[in-house]
Each structure stands twice: as C-alpha cells, then as structure tokens.
Amino acid sequence: CETCGKEEAKYRCPRCMKYSCSLLCVKKHKLALSCNGVRDKTAFVSVNQFTDLNLLSDYRFLEDVGRTADAAARHCIVHSPATKRLLYCLRNKARGCNIELKTLPVGFTKRRENSTTFNSMENKFYWHLKLIFPHCRAEYTLKGVPDDKTLADILKPYIDPVESDPVVCQRLKIYTASPQSDVRILMKIENRSRNSVRYNELDASKSLLDNLKGKVIIEYPTLFVVLKTLKNDMVVLGQDGSEPAENSDSESSSLSSVEEGEIRDSS
C-alpha cells in the first residue's frame, strides 16, 4: 500500500495508479492528491503499449463526445432569447471595462459552472473565480466575488496564517508558511498556441477589476497562486527573454484584433 506502507495492496486507483489496501487508505490518497478516482480516458498511451482495449476505449470515448455535443446542440437553453440577452449584456458590460469576455457554447463545463453576474444597480461584476495552488495540487471555486475586492483580500482566507480556515491552512501549509512577498498570482494568456503558453503576473494590491482590464477571459478568471522560491513550469510573459512584457495599453489596443483561438474543454 502506497498510503500506509504497512499492508498488502488490494486496490489500484484507475486515475493515478496508486496502490491501496483498504477503503480508508483509498479515501486518504484521494484527499492527499486531490484525486477523483475516475480513469483518465484521454491519458497518453505510447504505441508500444497500445492494445485493442485502448482502441475500443478511444472509440467509445469519441461516441460519447458525439452524443454529448448533439444533446447540447438540442438543448432548449441554447435557443433561449433570455439566455442570449444575458450573455450579450455580460460581454457588453465587460467590454465597457476593457475586458474581452468570451463565452462557450452550452455543454462545455466552464459554461455550465459559470455563475458570473453583473449588478446594474451597483454597476459591478460579481465574478465566478477559480483559485489553483499548483504546489499543493489544490483548487478552490469562489462565487460572487465583487470586482472591487483586491486580490490580497481574496487570498486571505486561504494563505493568511491568521485569517485562513484551519483545514485550508493545513492543506496549503507551504503557502501559509512562506512570506507574502514570495507569493505570485498568475493568469494564463488566452489565444496562444499550445506550445507557447504564457502567463500574466497580477498585482495583489490592486482590485480584481483592475487586474482583469486589458485581458481576454474565457467564461471566468482562473488564477494560479505560485511561490517564487519553488520551481514551476509557468513562463511569465516578458520574463523569459524571448518576448516583451504586455502592458495594459498595448493589450487594450490589440483586443479588437484578437482572433478566436481554438477552445478546448479542460474537463
């Protein structure tokens, strides 16, 4: 057993291939690794290991994709005038704030889970927001985050050693034990090729709205919280020496000419 290291393993996780001896160890390994235990149907398999079972699995996966896409296209919400007006309003309000907001068709995971709204009385966005902590393999979803809230205040319940929840603090102890000056907040730059992924570094002292200005967002913002002292593979634009850093003015002028990139459902 790769969890307790004491008993003989009886089970193997279909997702991460970890061996476990009991239901208790299975639950512990899922909690520790944020593993859902569901087999990854799109995981890479080399040609030498490719079997008839892999071929059958791929065939059934493509059939499932086709059925899901067809069901999504037939969904009544797709043709609902109210839904179209709501999405048009959100995109229009975001454009007025110098934010290029793109929405996905019904059926995509991000479209289904997005809860972003705009309050006309307060003239304020309440964002659906996802926080990802790569060093701890943890992610959290926030709903109704006001756009005038600073990123530092958004992160306090998670990485502040005093104000964070004890359970969250224990899970993110790498972050809570590090000085705040080591924390970096990154957001992926959309509409780039897969072999040229870059990130923008955000300012924790500024509001969420100020940080999103001049950016392209697909459905809702996803923020990656990393530490300077720990190695990660995220390349920040302008810090790899190959491309200049983007500023808000240059981004703003280029938003109108941004081409629609290939959109993939991350799920």
Automatic annotation (TrEMBL):
The keyword tRNA-binding does not apply. It holds the Pfam family zf-HIT. One of its GO terms (cellular component) is nucleus. Residues 1-35 form the HIT-type domain. GO terms for molecular function: zinc ion binding. The keyword Ion transport does not apply. Keywords: Isopeptide bond, Metal-binding, Phosphoprotein, Ribosome biogenesis, Ubl conjugation, Zinc, Zinc-finger. Gene3D superfamilies: 3.30.60.190. GO terms for biological process: box C/D snoRNP assembly; maturation of LSU-rRNA from tricistronic rRNA transcript (SSU-rRNA, 5.8S rRNA, LSU-rRNA); snoRNA localization. Residues 239-267 are annotated as: Disordered. Interacts with FBL, SNU13, NOP58, NUFIP1, RUVBL1, RUVBL2 and TAF9. Interacts (via HIT-type zinc finger) with the RUVBL1/RUVBL2 complex in the presence of ADP. Belongs to the BCD1 family. Required for box C/D snoRNAs accumulation involved in snoRNA processing, snoRNA transport to the nucleolus and ribosome biogenesis. This is Box C/D snoRNA protein 1. The gene is Znhit6.
